[in-house]
Amino acid sequence: MAPPHLIPTPTSMTAVPSSPFRLGAGAAISGDPDAVAALQAHLDALPDAPSAGPITLTVEAGGAAGSYRLEVDAASVTVAGADPAGLFAGIQTLSQLVQSGPDGWSIPAVRIDDEPRFAYRGVMLDVARHFHDVDTVKAYIDRASSLKFNVLHLHLSDDQGWRLEILSRPELTARAAASSVGGDAGGFYTQDDYREIVAYAAAHHMIVVPEIDVPGHTHAVSLAYPELSEQPVLSEHVHEVVALFGGDLPENGTGYDGMAVGFSSLKIHEEATYDFLRDVFREVAGLTPGPYLHFGGDEALGTGPADFAAFVARASALVAETGKIPVAWHEAGAADRLAAGTIGQYWGFVSPTDGMDDKARRFVAGGGRIILSPADAIYLDMKFSASSPLGLTWANGPTSLRRAYEWDPAAVIDGIGDVEILGVEAPLWTETIRDLAAIDAMAFPRIAAAAEAAWSAPFASTPERTWESFRTRVAGLEPLWARLGIRFTPVQAGDPS
Ligand code: TNX
To answer: CB–CB of 300/290 below 8 Å?
Structure first.
């Protein structure tokens, strides 16, 4: 038997001495009803042939959270999850095991025992730089959940647009949602749209982490609430970006559709700013069943250090008041009085520069943990090769699939090991990404490298956790991705090494 192509690679897999299980759409699947429906959705694409025997999907309490056991022989298939999330993960494995051969579809005889390394396995989609509608978000949930991601972080606000209806603050979507980068169409989610996304994510065992980015990245807020916003700060960076990419300089009272960052700030000493945040966080928390609420805190270059520290301390407390666990980008670690347990999201490089690792460590000192999103490895908006038409290059130049793969979460920040790491998240910023085809081309296959960093054993700790194995497995999954309609970048084109 050729070894099956599985991503993320499981904790253990052994061949079972048996011929494969024959599979068709007529398979008799029984067990947990949600799991049966999830597997049926995968099998509906197959030709209507009978199966060799029963497929049984069960939850059997006892194993580690999110773990499962999968057993296949010629006569039957069994997937047993330690909980519903584990069972769902097992079904994703099963769907990758399905092979087409001369005699039709089959599943090789194997036994797999598998459990996740990290509890938080995230993808982020920036719906502010370019708005992405509900169907696109659902398609990204399909893709991410098939790789065992269980968190969708939505970057819901930025200089270019505010993307979530806030009933107590209707001016936000009325005045600040109409456009995207480059003058492209904007949009926003009604609260019902957002609930639909949350429900769809939940059906795929994913939570939604909403992000309202403050105090910077708030030019859109200034269109709705000029009284809460400082004048744009036109730094050298802002002028450089305009020189490189064109567009206008940010201007008070006018929508911004360029790609510069760090010029906007909420008023830090205005009490009305915190009334605004209280209203927004209360509604966002009320719409979000997951435990986390992200308040941004990145690139607040228009805010002085003391003001920034005072602001993020208060913003984290306001999030905590809603009952949610605050999450912030690592810069917020500079503040002395973040709410206890605030989670830090590290977006520095695999080899930290400029004290970014110090800021990350401060979250741990405050009782929080770290989400790792090293930008020069798993920022899916970086070009994958110098010639890729989409994407940016600021994170150490183009990021090949190999670079996306060859790093380990526990080796990035001294003193931050598996215990301090909540998980791994691959962000997709969308300055250059307009639609699902572009999302697919940038995310696939590098998203698979992030999935493996989040789920599987440490890098280089097993023969499967090597570039050579991963590269072969990615190529092996391409037919499945093609069947699912994913417009991935083929391995050779993206990564000739
Ligand atoms: C940095 S990473 C940003 C975003 C940009 C991104 C582009 C981070 C927390 N902020 O505002 O969209 O780079 O790659």
So the answer is: no
